[in-house]
Known about the structure:
By secondary structure, the protein is α/β, with parallel strands linked by helices.
Amino acid sequence: xxxxxxxxxxxxxxxxxxxxxxxxxxxxxxxxxxxxxxxxxxxxxxxxxxxxxxxxxxxxxxxxxxxxxxxxxxxxxxxxxxxxxxxxxxxxxxxxxxxxxxxxxxxxxxxxxxxxxxxxxxxxxxxxxxxxxxxxxxxxxxxxxxxxxxxxxxxxxxxxxxxxxxxxxx
Length: 170
């Protein structure tokens, strides 16, 4: 990946995105307003027992970000990564790590992670975006659990993602 243009601000928004939710797309839309280039880093993280393989998650996130990139004029790249987030951010020439917060309970963990990342590389800032009110309770884990138990998750995920979830669980 070539270095960004001089003065361009690159941000990284990491997650497992298993599956990508309306909450994720809300954060991506809002983060795209803050940077010239946004890299959505899809973490391998097999420890979470993913419903979708890494290549499927990358493809689903790409589908969802194409419209956001066109509407915002921000370049949005989607790529898989494994390893330390700070190493991924450095490799992408990012100056910002974007983290979404749904509830106060998220803050303690995210605060600690931001502090550790700052100690590893003080040139990369962590920016927290609060989830929009209508998305504060959505988590990929809950979406998967509800879908596996036969509940309908159409209000939590984009239509194409819903189709893929239903196909996986059929």
